[in-house]
Specification:
alpha+beta, globular, 5 helices, 5-stranded mixed β-sheet, DNA polymerase, domain 1
Length: 164
């Protein structure tokens, strides 16, 4: 049986893949499209390393079948920067040195982008709640929370096209 062709809109680019629709989105992003921002962590949708945006909402790509995102807008870490300029959330994570090993970074950044889309000026409690399902084992939690606040500041002063 030949796999069906599945249309995807990934990082603003339309692609059509002849892949089994049951394949995990994460595997397709990494193996077929060469997008290595989302990481394989637990494979159960629990750790957040594989987080991507699906229609602007944070989603765990390891637990999502490819067929479930056909025709929907997908954004990976690689799709945030524009014209060689980091997205304000990425810039904030750099400025606050919110990464140590970097494994959780994809999930933290993508979840922050989704949070700031819904709540442009989150409280620390809102940021903690939004990020509570993203595991970081290195202990950069304070820097990550600082990055969320810095990202909110950068987005507030950014021109409209740079906003998530």
């Amino acid at each position: 049986m030949t796999p069906a062709t599945i249309p995807l809109l990934v990082n603003g680019r339309t692609v059509e893949l002849a892949v089994d629709g049951r394949a995990p989105l994460l595997a397709v992003l990494r193996n077929d499209l060469g997008l290595n921002g989302p990481k394989y962590g637990c494979g159960l949708g629990e750790c957040g390393a594989c987080t991507v945006l699906v229609d602007g909402v944070a989603a765990r790509s390891c637990a999502m079948p490819l067929a479930g995102v056909a025709g929907r807008e997908l954004t990976t870490l690689e799709g945030l920067a524009r014209g060689g300029v980091l997205h304000p959330v990425q810039q904030a994570f750099v400025e606050t040195q919110a990464a140590q090993c970097g494994y959780c970074l994809n999930g933290m950044v993508m979840t922050t982008v989704a949070l700031l889309r819904l709540e442009p000026n989150p409280t620390e409690a809102q940021a903690r709640a939004a990020l509570s399902h993203n595991l970081c084992r290195c202990g950069t939690h304070l820097e990550i929370l600082a990055a969320v606040q810095r990202a909110a500041q950068l987005l507030e002063s950014a021109p409209a096209p740079a906003r998530p």
